[in-house]
From TrEMBL:
GO biological processes: tRNA splicing, via endonucleolytic cleavage and ligation
SUPFAM superfamilies noted in UniProt: ADP-ribosylation
Gene3D superfamilies in the record: 3.20.170.30, RNA 2'-phosphotransferase, Tpt1/KptA family, N-terminal domain
Family per record: Belongs to the KptA/TPT1 family.
EC number: 2.7.1.160
Keyword Acetylation in record: no
UniProt source species: Candidozyma auris
Keywords assigned by UniProt, alphabetized: NAD, Transferase
Name recorded for this polypeptide: 2'-phosphotransferase
GO MF annotations, alphabetized: tRNA 2'-phosphotransferase activity
């Protein structure tokens, strides 16, 4: 069984990213839900989690997946910083990311057994989520990518710009786009598809050892 804080974190992610509407939790267009409402929900209540415990989980989350804010009404609200599938959650809680401010290497992590489907669809698809997630060399270790992935798809930012793709940066630094009108980052926007010998974590570890 997963540790207690992981179970609570997963329950929070489900409610804030995907389940708020279905679970009758009022959520605003920035993705925030009142913390007191979260604490009363059965998925959280079953753990008997307190407000202080939730605040600790938010503060110590290695990927900074959540944000807490106290508003003028004196109430505390919580949101997931990215990964939503709820259509009513917009980019209000994100920063527009102009092309001139983009990192040099922007890439999406995936798996070799997913490549055929990616090419068949014509590119990276946001599927049921609001955005397609990317990371950069500076952020790979903790944001926007699975360390277990074994394929990296690098973007050609000039082609992305020509295609009209709009990018955002989440509060925790993940690079996001809705793709084109069909929710896809087309194959023509790929600069390179790199298959790793092992996982991303293993490759980065080997690179660090080589530098030493």
């Amino acid at each position: 069984m997963a540790p207690r804080h992981v179970q609570i974190s997963k329950a929070l992610l489900y409610l804030l990213r995907h389940g708020a509407v279905k679970e009758n939790l009022p959520i605003d267009s920035r993705g925030f839900v009142e913390l007191s409402a979260i604490l009363k929900h059965p998925r959280i209540k079953t753990h008997r989690a307190s407000a202080e415990e939730i605040k600790t989980i938010v503060a110590e989350n290695d990927k900074k997946r959540f944000t807490l804010e106290t508003r003028e009404d004196g109430k505390t609200y919580i949101c997931a910083n990215q990964g939503h599938s709820l259509g009513l959650v917009t980019e209000e809680n994100m920063e527009p990311l102009p092309y001139e401010e983009m990192p040099g290497n922007v890439y999406h992590g995936t798996f070799a057994n997913k490549l055929d489907a990616i090419y068949t669809r014509g590119g990276l698809c946001k599927m049921l989520r609001n955005h397609i997630h990317f990371t950069s060399d500076a952020e790979w270790s903790h944001l926007g990518i699975r360390k277990s992935c074994n394929v990296l798809i690098y973007l050609d930012l000039d082609k992305c710009k020509e295609t009209g793709l709009v990018f955002y940066k989440s509060a925790n630094g993940v690079i996001l786009t809705r793709g084109n009108d069909e929710g896809i980052v087309p194959v023509g926007c790929f600069r390179e598809v790199k298959t790793l010998r092992g996982t991303l974590a293993e490759e980065k570890s080997a690179q660090e050892q080589y530098r030493q």
